[in-house]
Write a structure and sequence with these properties.
alpha/beta, Rossmann fold, 2 domains, 6-stranded antiparallel sheet, 11 strands, globular
Amino acid sequence: MPNPVPFLLRLQKNERLTDPSCDDVVVKLTFTALPHQNLPMFLAGQCVRVCLPMQPKLQASYFAIASSPHDTATYEFVIKGVTALSNALVQLQVGDDVQVEGPMGKGFNFAKHQGKNIILMGVGTGIAPLRSAWLDLIQHRKDYGHISIYAGFLSAMHHLLTDELENLSEHDVQVSVSLATGHDDWHGPVGYVQHALEENKPSPENTIVCLAGMNVMVDACTETLLNMGFDEQQILLNF
């Protein structure tokens, strides 16, 4: 298979997602294609390799696309400032360009799982590929059974896409948000996403589970799912 051809994206919007008082900066970046260019199609959960042409010393890295595969006008990303590159990305201004290669990776091919129940599980910026997934699923909501999302964040200040997650009930999507650190005004689950899953006890029958996040989270959730009666073929990763 030939290597993906690099192309440029232009920043249309930079929106901070974490609380302004939070030390961790997470943003949603919305990019459009340059004039007379088309954005490549992608599967939910796929990623692209990103670099900054104006800062060639920064090592390129991979970021999952957070937008709907049905949106042909924009690519969106949810990025936390951690590395030299990601810190530069979260500080981009409208009109700045990035260079990307892709899309690449397995992604989540939901067309192969029509009629099934679907569970999406992710923590932190793992919400990025899950957002692409739920936007894909609600576009064809009638083709699937029960859909539930288990999202985990460190604290209320790290809680991402709050309004969007709350509004998913309008599409008959059940959402459980867990905080590792609770507070007096928090009435949801406290702990890790796999604990909320164990509490709800979903049936493995005719169900697939999509995991996205850090390896330690993926491993812990996989162990929990296997203990609950799911088999490995029902557990999908996007990479």
